[in-house]
Design brief:
Blueprint lengths: L8 H18 L8 H18 L5 E3 L4 E3 L1 H21 L10 H20 L3 H18 L4 E2 L2 E2 L1 H32 L4 H4 L10 H18 L7 H8 L2 H7 L2 H14 L7 H21 L5 H20 L4 H28 L14 H4 L1 H15 L5 H13 L5 H27 L13 H19 L2 H14 L2
């Protein structure tokens, strides 16, 4: 196939941003504008670059890189998420000025790795893209400076993320060796033609299970979740907002592609269903006891990883489409919540539940946005969270895992308590004395309002976006 550069325009544009940030980081910053001033404009333009290449299709680089509806959908979501993250981090109070170009460069590099991951259809290419996105985060998680001193919690979070990442990488590579030895190929299109039953290919089943472990680590699925609450709590609010959202998209797109190998009733499919049920139950029960907002959202992400499994085990194109749509919903909902956390904690501190007391008086717009985000994470109408769960439930019902669907519904009821607890603190408790003032600037209010509007609009009229997700699912499974 003739190579057409427009097929990979999003990746090329993101690479140019990385190079620009790299060259800026080499200097002392005296002869260039600060990165936080010019980068938001160019990151926003990246969204339009993704739209330009929306209809591109093709196989590149020896069939290891596929441009299709799924990859373009995810790249657009990654570009939008990167743009919001850059805006949020542009006013990060816990980051030293001289480290800002390096910080944004690593965030851009991680997003670039995730873009590559969305098009990778060969196992080694998937692994390399996963490492590109992960190694960048190893560098930015410890970058947190409070009170003029390096934060020990951030250093601890960075170490934990590296150690757990190394274990997940080792599992994935070990699993890859089993897959290659038993199936004699690493291309997903060819692996889809092989058998994946324990009786017919036990080594392949073990290998795929181990390889999936690397994706479960990024998704924070039980039992690969242990790093998640600690890293969210230790990293700065803005960095946690990135770690909690964009890498999840990369993990979901790989899991969706690998789910085409599976059918309901297979041993691996049943394993995914069991882990999904355990993840959503464990995550929600642990979140009930949390007082730190970022730890609460950390255990919340463990639960949401379990929700996504509902779509993956259905074995239908509609189920894969629902998983992709829910990944987008998760991105938008959590970006909104972390935006509010970052603006309320204007001094960069970690927020406790009591820090939300009286927020409706101190920052009415932020309180409303937090309420919208909480309602969406619960799955209440008319938010995108409700539609995401609705699509998951309808796509998976009557495909052999009805018990998993029922588990999702029960866990959504459990989650009501701690999500609406955020709203309860913001609207029914009064603030104490000497409470730091939230950021009530136009920048803060506009960002919160736009993200809240996106959560509501996509919940009320999700048809156009879900149609794109269905198109992606039907290209994977007829």
């Amino acid at each position: 196939m003739v190579f057409n550069p427009i097929q990979i325009v999003p990746e090329l544009y993101q690479l140019l941003l990385i190079l620009a940030l790299f060259f800026q980081s080499l200097g002392d910053g005296s002869d260039t504008p600060p990165a936080e001033r010019w980068l938001p404009f160019f990151a926003g333009f990246g969204i339009f670059v993704c739209i330009v290449s929306w209809g591109a299709e093709g196989l590149l680089f020896g069939g290891a890189y596929k441009i299709d509806a799924l990859s373009q959908f995810i790249k657009l979501a990654i570009s939008a998420g990167f743009y919001v993250t850059v805006l949020n981090a542009s006013r990060q109070p816990s980051l030293e000025e001289r480290k800002r170009p390096d910080y944004f460069m690593f965030l851009a590099l991680s997003a670039w790795g995730l873009m590559i991951l969305s098009s990778a259809v060969e196992l080694i290419t998937i692994y390399l893209a996963l490492e590109i996105s992960s190694y960048s985060l190893y560098a930015v998680i410890p970058l947190r400076n409070t009170g003029g001193l390096g934060d020990k919690r951030a250093a601890e979070a960075g170490i934990k993320y590296i150690l757990f990442g190394a274990v997940a990488t080792a599992l994935a590579l070990y699993g890859f060796s089993y897959i290659l030895a038993s199936q004699h190929t690493s291309y997903i299109s060819q692996l889809a033609l092989r058998t994946w039953t324990w009786e017919g290919a036990p080594m392949a089943v073990v290998g795929l299970s181990l390889f999936l472990g690397g994706m479960f680590y990024k998704l924070a699925l039980f039992p690969f979740h242990f790093w998640c609450p600690d890293v969210y709590q230790g990293a700065s609010n803005e960095t946690a907002g990135f770690v909690a959202t964009l890498p999840k998209l990369g993990a979901v797109v790989v899991l969706v592609r690998l789910a085409t190998l599976l059918k309901p009733g297979l041993e691996i499919t049943t394993l995914l269903a069991v882990l999904g049920a355990a993840s959503m139950t464990y995550g929600n029960l642990c979140a009930l006891a949390q007082k730190d907002l970022k730890r609460l959202l950390g255990f919340s992400s463990v639960a949401h990883a379990g929700y996504i499994m509902v779509g993956l085990v259905s074995g239908t194109a509609m189920g894969l489409s629902a998983a992709v749509f829910y990944a987008l919903a998760y991105l938008v909902m959590n970006l909104l919540c972390f935006w509010v956390i970052s603006r309320v904690a204007s001094d960069g501190r970690n927020l406790q539940l009591d820090d939300l007391n009286g927020l409706y008086k101190r920052a009415p717009a932020l309180a409303f946005a937090l309420g919208v985000g909480a309602f969406a994470l619960v799955g209440l109408p008319p938010t995108i969270g409700f539609m995401g769960k609705f699509f998951l439930i309808t796509s998976a019902w009557d495909h052999g895992y009805n018990w998993l669907v029922i588990t999702l519904v029960v866990n959504s009821a459990i989650a009501i308590y701690y999500y609406l607890g955020l709203v309860r603190h913001a609207y029914t408790h009064e603030a104490g004395e000497d409470v730091p003032t939230p950021d009530n600037s136009a920048f803060s209010i506009c960002g919160a309002t736009l993200l809240a509007a996106l959560v509501l609009v996509l919940g009320m009229v999700p048809g156009r976006v879900f149609d794109f997700a269905i198109m992606a699912g039907k290209q994977l499974l007829p």
